[in-house]
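Example 3.2
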Amino acid sequence: LEDVRALSAMDDGSVLVASRGGLFRVDPEGRELAPVGPAGLDVRALAIGSGGRLWVGTAQDGLYQLTADGRVLAHYVHLPHKVDSSLPDNEIRALLLDRKGVLWIAGNSAGLASLHPATGDFRHYRHRPSDPYSVAANRLSSLLESREGLLLVGSWTNGFSIHAPATEDFLQIY
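Structure, written as tokens:
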């Protein structure tokens, strides 16, 4: 395995391994390594949803939703002619499925997005230098949900932001 970027534990005790060479599952005893999903994906980020559904963020190929056994349910990519209703960036750095079931997507160059899996609707959040209540940057690196339900968004160069979904505002921390 080359360049392991994320690890996630499954309910059955197996572990998912996201790497430059693809997505793999290690059995609970740690004896078998089996590929999961489309071959050859450069996987950067993982999130596990209800029923073991997998969200897989890639380095260049957008976002996949897979069944627990790796069958593709959906593939989301950036569509230049549908900017507001598609993935904002095909290079995904981090994923987070929050307690309300919303998938948060941190991109490499186009900011933050949320995806409501039930409807397939995207919402985009971009850094605007003149707006102190926008996300800290468009090149993002990490996501975390606090105990209080706040979203923390790490950036490459501008610190991080704290987002309260109820207000839609971001507090920038440098």
